[in-house]
Request: fold
Amino acid sequence: MLRPLLVGNWKMNASREANSTLLAALREARGLACDLAVCPPTLFLGDVAAALLGSDVAWGAQDCSAHEPGAYTGETAAVMLKEFGCRYVITGHSERRTMHGETDQLVADKAKIALAHGLIPIVCVGETLSEREAGQTHAVVMRQLSVVIHTLGHCVSQIIVAYEPVWAIGTGLTATPEQAQEVHALLRTQLAAATAAAASMHLLYGGSMKPDNAAALLAQPDINGGLIGGAALKAADFLAIARAAQ
Ligand code: PGA
Reply:
């Protein structure tokens, strides 16, 4: 079994004061049977790096540019994230796909540049409620992942995939463990056609993962961790999920 990975996606929630309380508690956590990482807003990466240096908690960013440094106002280059000690970068979160018009190809290009700079992309895929109701879940997630596989080739083995049903994000609705496992198994089969390392890749579930539903989700054979939004903002909740991963 892969050691589970729990990644806190703070989204646009943070302040220096709140961060220092949260990070101090995460730093102190001992004896967990999973790995932890946090993805704060980019502006706070320097603070977070300083607070977590020498701890077991890793950090990453919520997005990166698909370009190398240059004239791209407002963007952050993967090479800069690396300089600030990031291990991970989320690409293709549904909020970016929806609110910022990110296409499957742009998401894949971001993953590619992240890998080129030694970051581990956490590539998000997931269907909307109307797509699920129309029976399109498999087609949607496979289409999203296929562009990543095509763009990365055999290097796809180095990424993490997060299945995040859009209808479950921030809504309190969670995919049942069976619904999530079904999609995770599908994604792993798709990855297995592209890389011999598919069995050892981390596939994370995201979408209203909480202390009370985490154990059942994380017990599924193809769910190797979580991408956690709301419940990652409170140390008690995030660590309760971490303990559920034992
Ligand atoms: P949520 O967010 O846990 O608040 O549903 C998950 C995510 O969007 O990554």
Observations:
- The beta strands are 5-9, 35-39, 58-61, 88-91, 120-125, 160-163, 203-206, 225-228.
